[in-house]
Amino acid sequence: MVALLAFAVVFTLVVLVHEFGHFLAARRFGVKVYEFSIGFPFSPRLFTLFRHKETVFTVRLLPLGGFVSFSQDDGEDDTELFGVSYYRRALILAAGSLFNMVFAFAVFAAVLVVGKQLDPASALVLSAKTVWEILSGTLLFLMQAFSGHAAMEGVSGPVGIAVMAGEAAGKGVLSLCYFTGVLSVSLGIMNLLPLPALDGGHLAMLSLEAIRRRPLHPRVYQAATTVGLMLFLILTVLVTYQDIARLIA
């Protein structure tokens, strides 16, 4: 129970940080965000927390993760995201991962100051080094995985992450905070992978638009997102099976 609760809180927090990055960047460039929701995207809306300008802040039935919506009532014709320049759209797409990195940096610095009682300057330097080590280590693993030189044992799904969150929570608040920072960096990196349904996939299609000097039809994005979600669900099932097999071995 502790592991599940820790996973839900930590995962939702880092996802909301990610989505807040998209939200602020969109607002900065005049793109309307019609919904900022706490919870799984495909679960029913429970209630509205409040409204600010055109954005409704809501809670979904399954309170895990979160999302922002650039379309009003899920209508493709209402979105303004495709109307801004390539440069601004790229910044909006990348802002989520950037916020994950900044958030992790702040969390690590706070843990070092409180837990190791380092002075702020030393904590900031060590925090930056920690973010870089996680970032570079994850990228190296991904390159090895795509080249066939890394084993799937190094990949954890929801069950594996929940186990790690529970172990971190059992060691205390600072340990759980440190784990939150690690997960935030990992989420930021994974979202920049050039795969459909992820920010990196949208950035790849945006690059294609820039090369063609002609926008792709929104249906192309919808189709790519649908395919990407299916592949992501399949991967999640496989990795979850691996997590469970690890636990009962």
Indicate the topology:
Elements: H1 2-28, E1 35-38, E2 45-52, E3 55-60, E4 66-69, H2 86-115, H3 120-146, H4 158-170, H5 173-190, H6 199-212, H7 218-248
Parallel strand pairs: 1-3
Antiparallel strand pairs: 1-4, 2-3
Helix pairs in contact: 1-2, 1-4, 1-5, 2-3, 2-5, 2-6, 3-5, 4-5
What does this structure look like?
The chain is α+β, with helices and mostly antiparallel strands. The chain contains seven helices and four strands. The chain has helices at residues 2-28, 86-115, 120-146, 158-170, 173-190, 199-212, 218-248; strands at residues 35-38, 45-52, 55-60, 66-69. The protein is globular, with a radius of gyration of 19 Å. The protein starts with a helix and ends with a helix.
- Alpha-carbon distance between the two ends: 21 Å
Low-pLDDT stretches are none
Largest sheet: 4 strands, mixed
How many DSSP-defined strands?
4
Helix residue percentage: 55-70%
Average pLDDT level: 82
In terms of structural class, how would the helical and strand content be classed? alpha+beta
* String of helices and strands: HEEEEHHHHHH
Radius of gyration: 19 Å
Number of alpha- plus pi-helical segments = 7
Strand % is 5-15%
Large-scale geometry: globular
Tell me the strand order in the biggest sheet: 2-3-1-4
